[in-house]
Amino acid sequence: MRIVLPGDKIAENPVRMENAIVENGKTYATVIGMFDESKGAFIPLESVWYPRQGDFVVGIVENSKNNVHTVQLDSPFRGLILPPPRPRFGGRGRDDRFGGRPQREEREEILHVGDVVSSFVKDVKREADQIILILERPRRLFGGRLVEVRPSKVPRIIGKSSTMLKQLEDGTKCTILVGLNGIVWIKGENVPLAQKAITKIQEEAHVSGLTERISELLAGGNGGR
Amino acid sequence: MMAENEEYILEMLGKGMREHERDHMDYRDIKIEINTIPHAEGSATVDIGNTKVLVGVKLGVGDPLPDKPNEGALVTGAELLPLANAEYETGPPSPEAIEFARVVDRGIRAAGVVDTDALFIEKDKVWTAFVDIYVLNYDGNLFDAGTLAATTALLTARMPKIEGEEIIREGNLGKLKTNGTVTSCTFAKVGKTILLDPNANEERIMAGRLTIANDEKVVRAMQKGLSGSFSFKELTDLIDATFDKSKLLRDRMKQAMGE
Amino acid sequence: MIMGGGKDKPELIVNGKRTDGREFGELRPIKIQAGILKNAEGSAYLEWGNNKVLAAVYGPKEAQPKHIADPNRAIIKCRYQMAPFSSLEEHSRSGPNRRAIEISKVTKEVFENVILLDNFPGSEIDIFVEVLQSDGGTRAAGITAAAVAVASSGIPMRDIPYAVSAGKAGDEILLDLNKIEDNYSDADMPVAIAPRNSDILLLQMDGALTKEQVQRAADLVIKAGETITKLQRDALEARYK
Q1: Is the pLDDT score of A177 beyond 70?
Q2: Which phi and psi angles does A157 have, rounded to 5°?
Q3: For an interface test with C, which of B98, B233, B237 has the most C Cβ atoms less than 10 Å from its Cβ?
Q4: If you compute the radius of gyration of chain A from its CA atoms, what whole number of angstroms results?
Q5: Any idea what the CATH number is for the domain that residue A74 is in?
Q6: Which of A162, A184, B188, C73 sits CB 3.0–4.6 Å from C117 for a disulfide?
C-alpha cells in the first residue's frame, strides 16, 4: 500500500478504473488515495460522490411543482421524485377494482418543501443542462438531525457488513441513515454522541484501530484522545 | 456561433489548410491609419482582416501615483463595444476586456513607449497619458491589433502644453516623448496545431492562446491565456517566430507614419 | 509593476547575493498545510517567504445562476483577492481591482486545464485565494496553495500544478522574486506548470528578456518545481499519517 496523489502513475498500461485516467497508454490517479500494488486496487481517501443506480441517499425537498419534488442532495446532481405512474384500468397485477389504487410500495409519500427524505437512485439521466437523478421509494424522515460527511468516508461509517453502523446505533440508541451522497440522518437517544463518533470516523478513517477507538468512545471513554 | 463552422475549420486544419488560404504562420491583411480622431492627442485605427480597433490617446493633468511622485502616469483601458460583436454586452468591463487592456499596457510600459519621466510637470502635478482601446469589429486577435494601434497612436501623439492656467491642445505643439516601440504576435493552439493571428472562428475552437510582445531586441511581455497548455519548446519556437513576424508589423507601422 | 531604471533604484544584487541573502536560483522558504478550513471541500494555508495565502475550494455544486451552466462540463469560478492589510505600504481597498480580476482569470484557466470538468456537467467549482500578507509572487503562491486545496478535496484532477516566478536583475536570472525584486527587476515572469509533463499552464511576463534568458528562466522554474511539488505532496500526505 502506498499513498498516491492526483497525477501519480499507478499503471504502465491503460487500466479503466474509478478515480484514475488513462493518458498516452498509462494510468494516473486523479484523487488522493491508497494504492495496493499487488492487487492493483485504488481506494480513494477523498472523492466526490458519483451517483449510481440503487444508491441510497438522504436529502431535503427543495421544491414541489405539479407533484414533482426536487430534492437537494448537497451535490451537483439534482434529485427528482416523480409522481407514481397513474394506474390504468385493466392493468395486470393491480388491484384496480376500486379505480386503480396503487399498491402499497407505489403509494406516494405526501411531501412538502423542507421535508427530509431518504430515497434510492432509480436512474441517472443526462438532461439538457445537467445530470438529473430520478429517485424512487421516498421515505419522509420525521425529526432527527442531519450531519454532512465526506462521501469518501461513507464506507467507513457503515463499515464491513454494516458493523460500524450497527455499533454506532447500539452505542447511541439512535437510528442512523447514511446517504451515499454524504448526508447522514440521526434520530434517537444520544444524538450528540453519534455525531461525535461520526466526526471521529471521518477524521481518523485512515488510522488503524478505528473500531476499537470508536467502541471506547461509545462506552464513555475518550476514544484514545 | 455555428457549430458547422468549427467542424469545417478543424477539417481544413487537418488538411493543413486555413480560411482565406492562409498559412499557419501568416497574418491577415494589416491596415494602419493614423490620426483618425484629430481631437485626440494621438490616434490610430488598425485593421487585421475584419478585426478593427481604434485607439485614442488623451493627456490630462493630475496627481502622480503615490509610489512614483516624479513621473507621469500611463492608464490603459479597453472597451469591447457591443456594436463590435453580437456576443459583447454592455456593462462593466469583463475579465476578458481587463486582461486585454493589461496585456497591451504591459507591452507598452515594458518597452518604454511612453517616457513617463518626461510627463512630470512640477511637484504633485504630472501628465497622465490615457490610452483607450475601442474594439469596433471583432474577428479575432484583438491583442495584436490593440498593441499595434496603441503604439502607433502614442508614437504619433502631440504633447499639449500648459500656458498659465490653460492647457493648449492644438496648434504648434511638440510630440509626446517616446523611448521605444512594441508590437505583439498572438498564437492560437488548436489541437496540436499552432496558428498565428487567429480569426474569430479559430479563436472559438482554440484551447490556448499565447501573446508575445517584443521590440527589435528583446521580448517585452508575454501572456498565456485559456486552459490549453504550451510546452517550453513551443514557447521558444514561438519567440523565434515572433521576432521574425514582428518585422512585418513594424514595417506597416513605419509606412503608416510616413517614415 | 514599476519598471527598473528609476533614479532611486536599489541594488538587487550585492556581492553575488540577493537583498535577502539568497542565491540567484534559490526559493524562499515555503510551508504548506492542507485541509485547514472545516467548511470547505478542500483548503490549504501556505507561507512563501513573507507571503501568507489561504486557498479553499467548494463544490462541485449546481451552477448558479442557471444560465451560466455549461451542459457538458463543470465551470470554475475563481476569486483571487488581496487583503487590505496585506502589504507593508498603505491600506488598500479590498475587492476586485483590475489586477485581481486578471489574476483570477489566469488562475481559473490553470485549473480548467487540470480538473476533470467533464465529470460534472452543469455544475460549478469555486476556488478562492485570499492573500493575507503579500511580499511579491502572490499569484504563484495562490496557485500553488489552490492546487493543494483542490487535491485535498477529492475533486478529480490530472495533475497538481505549481507556480513560481522568475525574473532578471541586470544580466542575472533570478528565481522567485520578492516584493523589492518584483518592483525593481528588469523582467518578471510568473509561470504555472503541470509537473507530470512540464506543460505551461500560466505564463505572463513583462520587462526585457532575450529568448536565451527565457530559456534560463524556464530551467530555473522547472528545477524549482521539484522542491515545490515535494512540499505540496508532503502537505497532502501529512493529513493521513
Answers
A1: yes
A2: -65, -35
A3: B98
A4: 21
A5: 2.40.50.140
A6: C73
Residue C234 lies in a domain: yes
- A79 and A40 within one domain: no
Tell me the residues of chain B between 83 and 102 that have a Cβ less than 8 Å away from chain C. 93, 95-96, 98-99, 101-102
Structure-model confidence comparison of residues B61 and A129, the more confident one: B61
The number of angstroms, rounded, from the C-alpha of B20 to the middle of its chain's C-alpha atoms is 23
* Three cell numbers, residue B111: 518597452
CA pair distance C103, C96, nearest whole angstrom: 10
Delineate the domains of chain B, giving CATH numbers in brackets: 24-256 (3.30.230.70)
d(CA A213, CA B225) in angstroms, rounded, equals 51
Q: The domain containing residue C161 runs over which residues?
A: 26-238
Cell of B243: 521576432
Q: Could you list the pLDDT tens digit for every one of the 259 residues in chain B? A: 444 567 777 877 887 788 777 899 999 999 999 999 888 999 999 999 999 999 999 999 999 988 889 999 999 999 998 888 878 887 888 999 999 999 999 999 999 999 999 999 999 999 999 999 999 999 999 999 999 999 999 999 999 999 888 888 888 899 999 999 999 999 999 988 999 999 998 999 999 999 999 999 999 999 999 999 999 999 999 999 999 999 999 999 999 999 8
Q: Which residue of C has its CA nearest to A204?
A: C240
In a domain, A93, yes or no: no
CA dihedral sign, ordered C86, C88, C91, C96 = negative
**C116 interaction partners in chain A (CB closer than 8 Å):** 21, 30
C222 occurs within a structural domain: yes
- Please answer yes or no on whether C203 and B210 come within 8 Å at the CB atom: yes
As for the ipTM of the complex, it is 0.91
CATH number at residue C31: 3.30.230.70
Determine which of C107, C114, C200, C220 to mutate to test the interface with B (most B C-beta atoms within 10 Å). C200
User: What are the residue ranges of helices labelled H in chain C?
Assistant: 98-114, 138-151, 179-184, 211-238
Per DSSP bridges, beta strands C30-34 and C42-48 are antiparallel
Which chain A residues are closer than 8 Å to C60 by Cβ?
48, 75-76
Contact B95 C209 (CB under 8 A): no
For residue A39, being part of any structural domain is answered with: yes
Whether C1 maps to a domain, the answer reads no
Tell me the three cell numbers of residue C2: 514599476
CB contact under 8 Å between B235 and C218, yes or no, is: yes
Q: Is residue A223 part of a domain?
A: no
DSSP codes of every residue in C164-200: EEEEEETTEEEES--HHHHHH-SEEEEEEEETTTTEE
Please tell me whether residue B216 adopts helix, strand or coil conformation.
coil
Asked if the structure places residue A94 within a domain, the reply is: no
- Rounded distance between C-alpha atoms, residue B233 and residue B251, angstroms: 28
Count of the separate structural domains present in chain C: 1
Considering the domain boundaries, does residue C17 fall inside one? no
Q: Among partner residues C59, C123, C157, which is closest to A130 by beta-carbon distance?
A: C123
